[in-house]
Amino acid sequence: MSRAVRDRETDDFRRNVPVHAVWEITLACDLKCRHCGSRAGARRDRELDTAECLEVVAALARLGTRELSLIGGEAYLRSDWIDIIRAARAAGMRCAVQTGGRNLTEARLAAAVGAGLLAVGVSIDGLAPLHDELRGVPGSFSRAIDAVRRARAHGIAASVNTQIGARTMDDLPALLDAIAAAGATHWQIQLTVAMGNAVDNDAVLLQPYQLLELMPLLDRLYREGLDRGLLMVVGNNIGYFGPFEHRLRGVGDESVHWTGCAAGQNVIGLEADGTVKGCPSLRTSGYAGGNVRDLRLEDIWNHAEEIHFGRLATVDALWGFCRTCYYADVCRGGCTWTADSLFGRPGNNPYCHHRALELDRRGLRERVVKKREAPGAPFAIGEFELIVEPVPGREGASPAPPVTAATGGLIQLRRRRDGAAAPRDGRVPPQLAPCRACDRYIYPREATCPHCGADVARAAAAHAEVVQRRRALIERLERALSGAAAAASRG
Using CA atoms, how far apart are residues 44 and 21, in angstroms rounded to an integer? Predict the structure, then answer.
């Protein structure tokens, strides 16, 4: 299986290469999304000029970035967005644009493709009634679908990005039909996060316990999409380590699984005024490492402590369920953005499939409830309370014991205050493999699966036997078909 340019190799981990850069080149936007974390609409004060943007492109190339995603706001509302695409391609980077598609005219799209644009990602959050309501502009669904069709007509990859909120699940099967018919090649799924406008409209948020319904649905739609030439790609806050991880995370490559937040390690984010963060989605306050107008981008990446929160790590910042989770030393609390936006600090992420399954096994579930509103600034967060309660109808159930972490090299995501420098070599994450009895990932040291109780070696042997029989059957069928074809040609 060929690997995408943003896939990380061992050397990328060791050298902390920002393989993927996501750059908000303007905060200007022509939609009014109820769930927009950056509260896009008006331009930022003092957005970078063209010369400064071209220097950012050159600096990213020097750092080893292989893929650049331009976002907003709306990237096409910036008059020099074509110049930025052209410079990125000339520097050897794959360049993509994320858009709502409302005013991605044919002239704009053709100019971008001519400059070297290789992919367009179009945000579609449900069928027309829900999407138009969430995006705040009637007709935005039809414009988005049209953008997908026209991107494919230009011969470039066209993906659809869908934010999943409280009302999205019912639309997903029909949405698959619509985007597959429009020619989408990829479908990226992520959860709506409690930031910015989504805090103001917190009813849009999915509840953590709803992952028990969502994840089997995504697995079914993943398989249906493959049959129609549409590849589902799960975002960084979808998962983790449930029975579908081996299929969804690595898009069929089970050696790929969640390995922790890549912010400041293999991902870099930039705001339109030159502010640099380890991830484009993180709030500015507390996570901004500096500004390219004041420091070289390379110096911010290599030396800013705010960028390095994921590199300076011990167990101390993992808390709540995540502190004792079986997967703690590889997962690191899941998506930093999701947890930090809820609680004001990372290290405990309730939006986790493994966690929801574990709690359900013990007769429990989790909900988040807003306690404090967010300020009106971009990337602002409020405060949410995490409620753990009995599953309705199972209040008298006897809870099962949790599957806890083994002792070992756990890490923290909080910032160090002792002046310690980031380690010279980046951390290469542990490599897990699925238990062949239950498809849940386990560490190589396990003799008995902690999730299903199976004998790991015996389950692996039985699986290998099934695979061998299947291969033999396919070979016999191919020989039979080949012989039939040869006989037909002679006759």
Answer: 20
The Cβ of residue 213 has, within 10 Å, a number of other Cβ atoms equal to 11
Give the total number of structural domains in the chain.
Answer: 1
Indicate whether 412 pLDDT > 70. Answer: no
* CA 190/CA 212 separation, integer angstroms: 15
Separation of alpha carbons 251 and 481, rounded Å: 30
Domain containing 424: what range?
Answer: 1-434
Give the CATH number for residue 92.
Answer: 3.20.20.70
Distance CA 425, CA 354 (A): 30
| Two structure tokens written together for 357 | 């399954």
Residue 481, burial from CB neighbour count under 10 angstroms (0-12, 13-18, 19+): exposed
Helices 211-227 and 353-361: angle between axes, nearest 10 degrees: 130
Q: What pTM does this model have?
A: 0.88
DSSP state of 96: E
How far is 25 from 91, CA to CA, in rounded Å? 18
Q: CA-CA distance, 278 to 346, in Å (whole number)?
A: 14
* Number of residues in the chain: 491
385: part of which helix (H) or strand (E)?
strand 383-390
Residue 222's pLDDT is: 95
Give the pLDDT mean for 149-172.
Answer: 95
456 in any annotated domain? no
Residue 194 corresponds to which amino acid? A
Q: Quick check: is 259 in a domain?
A: yes
Work out the angle between the directed axes of helices 81-90 and 106-115 (0-180°, nearest 10): 20
For 318-335, how does the pLDDT look when each residue is reduced to its tens digit (9 = 90+)?
A: 899 999 999 998 898 999
Let me know if residue 467 belongs to a domain. Answer: no
8 A C-beta contact, residue 78 and residue 28: yes
Report pLDDT digits (tens) over 199-247.
999 999 999 999 999 999 999 999 999 999 999 999 999 989 999 998 9
C-alpha distances in Å from residue 247, one per residue of 118, 228, 244: 26, 17, 6
